[in-house]
Write a structure and sequence with these properties.
The structure is a single chain. This protein is an alpha+beta fold. Helix content is 23%, strand content 33%. Helix 1 runs antiparallel to helix 2. The longest helix has 16 residues. The radius of gyration is 17 Å and the shape is globular.
Length: 241
């Protein structure tokens, strides 16, 4: 099996898609401070229930908690813990450990605060593991949600690896207005044929923090994971800060 394809990471708004280092596509895009405007309303009180057979992971230092199926593997984003986790994974799947290690530094550098993936062998048939990342960016001033969404959509429209229309709709998670965005991207891999991946993103703003939840899976698996992605996104809650 060829190494797993790279996972999601954040790219600065002013960075052209062609200039972003491969092999990962731009899954998560956050606008610069100068593009932000009016404040986002404070969230209403919500009750989040963790689905049976799922695990909740809390990141109070980053202001959120999220749940994924217990069978998914969370990868630590602290250097020492990451190396320990990679060592354990390497014993069973050296190629996977290598691919994860190559991309972890980029993920951390670009604002990813949570990273988990499904190690079900069925999802790895084409050398790709279904995964989720959560990116957070904090701004010095309150964020306009409509502006945040518009800037993200404009950047996605310019994404050269995108090979489908962008389908977006307004919904709500964690008591906040949320934009759900779906599209396809093509991964160009050195040692294998290009792979088309289905991306589902949730854009949400809480106070002065902007979050992007990014779920990625192979196109032939998107129907299987649609409900899983929706449940995971619905489990998001804001805590701590």
């Amino acid at each position: 099996m060829c190494p797993l394809a790279a996972f999601a990471y954040r790219a600065a708004l002013m960075l052209a898609p062609e200039a972003v280092p491969g092999p990962a596509p731009i899954f998560t895009i956050v606008p610069v401070v100068g593009d932000l405007g009016l404040a986002t309303p404070a969230p209403t009180s919500v009750v989040v229930v963790v689905p049976h057979g799922w695990s909740e992971y809390a990141a109070p230092e980053n202001g959120f908690a999220i749940s994924v199926p217990t069978t998914w593997q969370r990868l630590p984003l602290r250097a020492q813990e990451l190396q320990t986790a990679l060592g354990t994974i390497r014993q069973a799947n050296p190629e996977l450990a290598e691919a994860l290690g190559e991309n972890a530094e980029t993920l951390i550098h670009n604002g990813v605060k949570f990273w988990a993936f499904d190690l079900n062998p069925e999802t790895q048939q084409a050398g790709f593991a279904t995964n989720v990342t959560v990116t957070r960016q904090t701004f010095s001033n309150p964020v306009s949600f409509d502006t945040f969404v518009a800037v993200n959509l404009n950047q996605l429209n310019a994404l050269t690896t995108r090979n489908s229309d962008i389908v977006n709709e307004r919904t709500s998670i964690a008591g906040q207005a949320t934009e759900r965005v779906r599209y396809l991207v093509t991964l160009n891999r050195d040692s294998a044929e290009p792979l088309t991946v289905s991306i589902t993103q949730y854009l949400v703003v809480n106070g002065r923090s902007a979050y992007v939840l990014t779920y990625a899976t192979r196109t032939d698996m998107q129907d299987k994971y649609r409900a899983v992605f929706e449940q995971s996104a619905a489990s998001l809650r804001f805590i701590g800060q």
